[in-house]
């Protein structure tokens, strides 16, 4: 796993992608269907994120979710 810090550009890309899936990933429900939908949304976000031309380091959905959680806390 790569431990490189995120650039401001990478953070902005993530925020813009999360806005598209915000209703799904911020859903407070914890039933099996909702959890699966959240995982699928994070996989799509990771796929779109890594497809961006300005992104040099590929990140996993788990890494991006952790970054999002950290950004929300700030």
UniProtKB/TrEMBL annotation:
The keyword Nucleotide-binding does not apply. Residues 1-72 form the Myb-like domain. Keywords: Transcription, Transcription regulation. The keyword Transcription applies. It holds the Pfam family Myb_DNA-bind_5. Self-associates forming complexes of several hundred monomers. Involved in transvection phenomena (= synapsis-dependent gene expression), where the synaptic pairing of chromosomes carrying genes with which zeste interacts influences the expression of these genes. Zeste binds to DNA and stimulates transcription from a nearby promoter. This is Regulatory protein zeste.
